[in-house]
Amino acid sequence: MTKERVSNSSDLENTPPKFESPLWTLTEICEATGGSCDSKDKSGIERVFTDSRKIKSGDLFIPLQGPLFDGHDFIQDAFDSGAVGALVQKEFDGSKITNGVLIYVDDVMDALDDLARESRKRTTAKIIAVTGSYGKTSMKDILSLALSSIAPTHKTERSFNNHWGLPLTLSNLHRDHHYAVIEMGMNAAGEIRTHSLMVQPHVALITNTGDAHIGKLGSLENVAKAKAEIFEGLIDKNATVILYSENWATKEHMTLLKSKGISVLTFGEMAVFSVANKLSPKGLEFFVTEEKTDFAARVFLPVFAKHWGVNIAACAATLKALALEWQTILPSLSSLYIPAGRGVVEQVTLYKNKQNQQTNAGKFILIDDSYNAAPGSMKKSLEALAFMKRTSNRTIAVLGDMLELGQESEAYHVGLKNIQGFSDIDLIYTSGPEMQKLYDLLPLEQKGLSCELPQDIADNLVKDVRPSDIILVKGSRGQWADQGRMVVVVETLKQLGQKDQIKHA
Q1: Distance of alpha carbon 229 from the chain centroid
Q2: Residue 203 is part of a domain; what is its CATH number?
Q3: Residue 495 falls inside a structural domain
Q4: Any idea what the CATH number is for the domain that residue 392 is in?
Q5: I want to staple 302 with a disulfide (CB 3.0 to 4.6 A). Which of 6, 57, 283, 412 is the partner?
Q6: Which of 4-13, 307-316, 370-379 has the least mean pLDDT?
């Protein structure tokens, strides 16, 4: 099983920071949601959570409902695990439930939204909202790490950025948090507007506007309009928007913001906050500067993808917008751990069977970027792999289909071969029908293997891995869920570093 490494790790499943006062009292929850209960229990709530399997003592359980499940079926399990209370539909029969307080509401999802709004109303924290076609989760983790180095900071955990994850995140914002970094995702037009109006951010950051979701929104222009919805919930005209200078939609967004009188700071290679990098065998050192000042900072990360430097520049811009000394805070990012599946670089020892003995044959580098893929992020990952070519004997890309691209899907997949440096990658393995179209156009010497399922790729690739190889694994997370998506390739490759797992010659 892949072990996930997360910067500033305090997942909602883990114990949250301890404050003197509880997150909520049951009385406050009833008032915020308009709920009713028979109990006069005034116990404090330490966390709001939705997964009955991971409930801890002091939690409020939110029983979400879906087409194949109903969280109300697990309320007793939640109470047995230590939950203090639960929001429930008013028609729910709780006569057999013991050990907890039931708060009856008209609609559980609406009640969660109400709780989130009350949380936003009462907080004095500075709130940063992050959206973008890709890179927003990594950006959120970078910002929260920097801010938590100076004051208590709340953040969206994992990728809880949708219609229930965002209000859940906001409901867990404590009165004593000084900052909150809220990630906003989307699947359709209008979602970011709803999120932004609920969050009312002091700072809004768009990592980029790209091809993700173009299949649902119809055009890049519509994607740009959807991302711009984040401006509609800004706290007031003193808010600041942070934009990527090299992105095609930035000019349009800046024109819109100028008409509203909203301040803008840019980040990128040629921006208010600019970044340059220096390659070393262990990673990249990034240098961030602010235009028209002498302010500068440097950050080293064990990564080989240059776009991490763009994220660091965006962090500097955000700190500036919050009136913080960004140049003194930014070096704290050198302690950043990259989450599993998001470009983490790992050296794996390669064991080979020789005369019935397993011997250390050297090491190869594994880049685990398996969490998700869109054309823009795929381009950056392949450019990074080509960039690393100078440090390795061979470079290998293992690519899964990119989803939600609509009628342009084939053009986006086939177009990958035109990325700068793509022809320098030694071997290409592909998984899925869309990537097959790219594979068919590759020169013979660049073809590794093409299969429908990621596991089939993995089983063949492990037989060909050599010391000093650099292997990138990337694909959309929506594929082959029952087979483990592209992460199964990562896990299979990691087994090469475990002596008792070796099954090949």
Answers
A1: 20
A2: 3.40.1190.10
A3: yes
A4: 3.90.190.20
A5: 283
A6: 4-13
User: Measured between alpha carbons, how far is 30 from 118 in angstroms, rounded to an integer?
Assistant: 11
The predicted-structure confidence for 198-207, as pLDDT tens digits, reads as follows 999 999 999 9
DSSP assignment string, 136-197: HHHHHHHHHHHHHTTS-EEE--TT--STTHHHHHHHT--TT-SEEEEE---SSTTHHHHHHH
This prediction has a pTM of 0.81
The total domain count for the chain is 3
Question: Is 7 a domain residue?
Answer: no
DSSP track, 231-298 = GGG-SSTT-EEEEETTSTTHHHHHHHHHHHT-EEEEEESSSSEEEEEEEETTEEEEEEEETTS--EEE
- Using the 3D structure, point to which of 306, 335, 364 is the last residue of a domain: 335
Instruction: State the amino acid at position 69 in one-letter form.
Output: F
Q: What is the pLDDT of residue 10?
A: 38
* Residue 251 sits in the same domain as residue 350: no
Residues 6+ apart with CB under 8 A from 121: none
Beta partners for residue 277, in sequence order:
286
Half-sphere exposure of 431 (CA within 13 A, CB side): 28
- Of 97, 68, 96, nearest to 86 by C-alpha is 97
- In the chain, what percentage of residues exceed pLDDT 90? 68
pLDDT at 5 over 50: no
Does pLDDT of 24 surpass 50?
A: yes
233 and 378: one domain? no
Beginning with the edge strand found earlier in the chain, give each strand of the sheet holding 296-301 in spatial order: 153-155, 179-183, 126-131, 203-206, 240-244, 263-268, 273-280, 283-290, 296-301
- In order of 120, 368, 442, the CA distances from 422 in angstroms are 47, 18, 11
Domain match, 183 and 286 both: yes
Identify residue 348 by its one-letter amino acid code: V
Lowest-confidence range among 30-44, 74-88, 188-202?
Answer: 30-44
**Domain span holding position 459:** 344-501
Considering only 26-35, 125-134, 205-214, 444-453, which range has the smallest mean pLDDT? 205-214
Average pLDDT over residues 401-413: 91
Comparing 229-243, 357-371, 379-393, 474-488, the range with the smallest average pLDDT is: 474-488
* CATH code assigned at 40: 3.40.1390.10
Cα separation, 401 vs 41, whole angstroms: 52
Contact at 8 Å (CB) between 137 and 324? no
Which CA distances in Å does 316 have to 23, 132, 203, 331?
Answer: 30, 18, 13, 10
d(CA 396, CA 382): 10
In a domain? residue 14: no
Q: Cα–Cα distance between 230 and 195 in angstroms, integer?
A: 8
Same domain, 285 and 348: no
